[in-house]
Amino acid sequence: MNNEKDVDKNKCKFCGAELEYSFADIEFYQNRSEMEMGGSFVLIPTYVCSHCFLVQSVVDVKLSEIESFYLSSFSSARLLELQKYTHRIFKKFENENARLVAEFADPRVNGYPIFGNRNLHTLMDVYGKADFLMCHDALTYATDINDFISAIKLFLKPEGSVTFEFLYLLPWMAEESGVVIGNMFPYYSFTTFEKILKYHSLISYDVIECFPPGSLRVYAKHKENHKLTIANSVRLLRGSERDKGISELNAYIKFQDKLIDRNLTRQFDQHQLRSL
């Protein structure tokens, strides 16, 4: 698997396989005003790994360059979604002696990692291990996926649990717009994300598609933790993705072919890929 010592921008950020197959283009605006005014943007290619099917870009962009996407706004639907989530978590811990609940909204500051194995022990020396971790959007900006997930595993108590929330790949594929608006980092299917969890000896026990539309929230635990039972939602989503061929390269090739037919994306050869 990929790690910090052998990171290659032309290789998969999770498994380290060579990236050969195009997926779609990302519409990247340099600043907020250009995004709001429909101004100039850069199209960045994304690729799908033919081994683990992680969709990702090969271009690294610092956090400071994409802060303009965060607008100061909220909606009643989003607040209701968060209220339900909070009530569920409180219910889970109301009869337990939970001492540490932590949230990781972003593992980087100005493009540099602030959470990973390098500084994990400093956190544990101060706070100990966590009963519950919230990683909402943190995966989006984790430049080293394996370092981040392995640190989460070490930080979590044996009977603890963690939630990951991130943009869900399948709605983008269903939309067939050819443009993914947002950041430069991986887009996950549930199937691929479960592969990442399994590699780090974690397992999902519940999953929901949540607000905003196109987001997925995955509840995970240590694989040795039998206290938390696996919800039917996990089996259902696994089956749904299997039926859609999400673990077969052909599904991604067909998606790319549709975009090419509609002139919604470009094809990049390996020379162009390596020059980005």
Q: Give me the CATH superfamily.
A: Vaccinia Virus protein VP39
Order of helix and strand elements from N to C terminus: EHEEHEEEHEHEHEHEEHHH
Kindly report how far apart the N and C termini lie.
Answer: 23 Å
Mean pLDDT: 77
Radius of gyration: 19 Å
- Put simply, the count of helices is 9
Structural class: alpha/beta
Write down the CATH topology. Answer: Rossmann fold
How does CATH name the architecture? Answer: 3-Layer(aba) Sandwich
- The quaternary state of the protein chains shown equals single chain
Low-confidence stretches: 63-72, 266-276
Task: Output the strand order for the largest sheet.
Answer: 4-7-8-11-10
Strand content: 15-25%
How would a crystallographer describe the biggest sheet?
5 strands, mixed
Shape: globular
CATH class: Alpha Beta
Total strands: the figure is 11
Number of domains: 1
| DSSP helix fraction | 25-40%
